[in-house]
Amino acid sequence: MNHPSDVRTSTPLDEWLAKLGRSTGAPGGGAASGVMLGIAASLLSMVAAYTHDDPCAAECGRRVARLRGEALQGAESDGIVSAEFGAALALPADDRDRDARVRAAAVCAAESAARLGAVGIALLSEMRVLRDIGNRSLSADLAVAAGALDAGLSGSSINLRANLRTARAHHASAAALAELHVDAARLAEAQQSTARIAEELSAEFDD
């Protein structure tokens, strides 16, 4: 049985976006970031497919297709995590279990953002490959892919840091969050690198 908050990315786009716009938080910003990563992956796959007779590009395309699946699965999973996080936050302030439930939900949400971020970091590596070997006729598509990847990584980074802040506010220990803080630093660095590449690719079209 599907979780009641499981909004699949196979839902028609207009319906998925309508659900995103509702006051449920499931899907929310984390799932939207995952979809942006999926869009980036699809564009990278297209660039690879147009780079004919290059075994490196073909292999890159296969890796990117797998990453697209991971991004979309992560987006669906994040919607469920987001709903559970929202339910914990909605508990009455005098509920004696609220602090523990919000803390646990925030950590789960941070882990979800970190998983999506890891997909984005892997896509950054593939984008660098295609920047070097990709069909130059697809330069504009590669630039759009970089912009989508920047958006997906930025969203994942924001969500991870926000969830860590909530976890700390609800008394999560430094030891429990140590690995996630490492993930946050790695994700922020990848997002900055992607933003630079996106700007450089876009600048190629300036007169």
Short précis:
The protein has 207 residues and is mostly helical. The protein is built from six helices and no strands.
What does this structure look like?
With 207 residues, this protein is an all-alpha fold. It has one domain: Four Helix Bundle (Hemerythrin (Met), subunit A), CATH 1.20.120.680. The chain is built from six helices and no strands. It has helices at 13-20, 29-50, 55-89, 98-133, 139-169, 174-203. α3 packs antiparallel against α4, α4 (98-133) packs parallel to α6 and α5 runs antiparallel to α6. Residues 1-7 have low confidence and may be disordered.
List strands and helices in order, with pairings.
Elements lengths: L12 H8 L8 H22 L4 H35 L8 H36 L5 H31 L4 H30 L4
Helix pairs in contact: 2-3, 2-4, 2-5, 3-4, 4-5, 4-6, 5-6
CATH topology: Four Helix Bundle (Hemerythrin (Met), subunit A)
Count of individual helical segments: 6
CATH-level-4 superfamily name = Formiminotetrahydrofolate cyclodeaminase monomer, up-and-down helical bundle
Strand content: under 5%
Low-confidence segments: 1-7
Domain module tally: 1
User: Tell me about the biggest sheet?
Assistant: none
* String of helices and strands: HHHHHH
CATH architecture: Up-down Bundle
Number of strands: 0
In one word, what is the shape? Answer: elongated
The CATH C-level name is Mainly Alpha
Please state the structural category: mainly alpha
Radius of gyration: 18 Å
Query: How much helicity do the residues have?
Result: over 70%
- The mean pLDDT is 93
